[in-house]
Amino acid sequence: MTLEALPLMRGPVMVDLQSTTLTEHERDRLRHPLVGAVILFSRNFKSKRQLKALCDEIHAVRTPSLLIAVDHEGGRVQRFRDGFSAIPPMRTLGDMWDKDPLEACRKASELGECIASELVDCGVDLSFTPVLDLDHGHSEVIGNRAFHHDPRVVTMLARALIGGLHAQGMSHCAKHFPGHGWASADSHLALPIDDRPLDQILAVDAMPYQSLGRLLRSVMPAHIVYSSVDTKPAGFSKTWIKHILRKDLGFDGFVFSDDLTMEAASVAGSIKDRANAALAAGCDMVLVCNRPDLADELLAQLTWKSSKTYQRRLQALMPLRS
After folding, report:
1. Torsion-angle region of 197 (φ positive above 0: left; ψ -120 to 50: alpha; else: beta)
2. If we measure between CA atoms, which residue out of 197, 93, 79, 179 comes closest to residue 139?
3. Whether 258 is catalytic
4. Residue 186's pLDDT is what?
5. Annotated active-site residue in 136, 138, 166, 188
6. Which one-letter DSSP state was computed for residue 263?
7. Which residues pair with 172 in a beta bridge?
């Protein structure tokens, strides 16, 4: 069957762009039936006006329109700055909680609304936030991106932030399931290993996921091996995604893989092997970032069949789109 003959749908691959406008090759890539979403980075931003024009162009490329996402947590992970409010690292909310929990929750909700209103106004559908990782003091890559070391505090502040996002019509993605805070290695550069027992991970690090329940619209698993549970990183593990996240915790939302070009993902093999492993484990969509050559390679090789469940879960992330 030719690509032109395939039914209109959003596929399971999220790709990125190289600059502030679309090239003809990028337009062709975004029209590929296996593409379902676009992730934006700082290189895609020059001004609010330019960003809105870019998002409008992306949404107009095809019907149904593609999901547009960005990492916009605050602190050192905020892709758009000029003309956008400066969002502090989430640790500031945890510090505020230690002095005044009610004020911290109010501020978290306010920041959620601020993030969402500014992004939605430009045409962005989803922010990869909140970080639900705990601050165990081990992970530099997480550091002050974490709200707090106490999972109960993380849960309450994340609940307030998500409420603010939802109030302005923005979807979110909680990360990095079941928790990146204990492992010290940066999964962008190496394969982190967390050797704690499952019951400890579930009772502490994964507790916010269980407590937030159906409020969570999407989740991103970590490229971390939890050696007491599986030899595969969580993002490639049926045990973590299909059994623990889906069955035991009852999560029925969308699951994004973390970026398949990260060093920790290379254990799964080629880009096609990585995508197949993530999808087989239970991820709904795979991310291929900063390597357009690998994105094109994957789109040329991947075989995938859509389902009503997949399209329902993805559509739930796009409340403002057809």
Report:
1. beta
2. 179
3. yes
4. 65
5. 188
6. G
7. 127
Among 194, 205, 230, 258, which one carries the catalytic annotation? 258
- Are 62 and 70 spatial neighbours (Cβ–Cβ below 8 Å)? no
Q: Would the pTM of this model clear 0.90, i.e. be above it? A: yes
Burial class (CB in 10 A: 0-12, 13-18, 19+), 271: buried
Question: In a 3-state reduction of DSSP, which class is residue 167?
Answer: helix
Task: Identify the H or E element spanning 259.
Answer: strand 254-259
Residue 229 C-beta-side C-alpha neighbours within 13 Å = 26
d(CA 84, CA 114): 9
pLDDT of 242 > 60? The answer is yes
131-140, 232-241, 259-268, range with greatest mean pLDDT: 232-241
Q: Give phi and psi for 169, each to the nearest 5.
A: 80, 25
User: What one-character DSSP code corresponds to residue 150?
Assistant: S
Amino acid at 110: E
Q: Is the pLDDT of residue 322 over 90?
A: no
Dihedral angle, C-alpha 308, 9, 117, 156, nearest 10 °: 30
Q: Residue 301 carries which side chain, given as an amino acid letter? A: Q
| Strand partners of residue 15 | 38
**Between residues 202 and 264, the one the model is more confident about:** 202
Whether 191 shows a pLDDT value over 90: the answer reads: no
DSSP 20: S
User: Is 138 marked active-site?
Assistant: no
User: What average pLDDT score do residues 279-306 get?
Assistant: 97
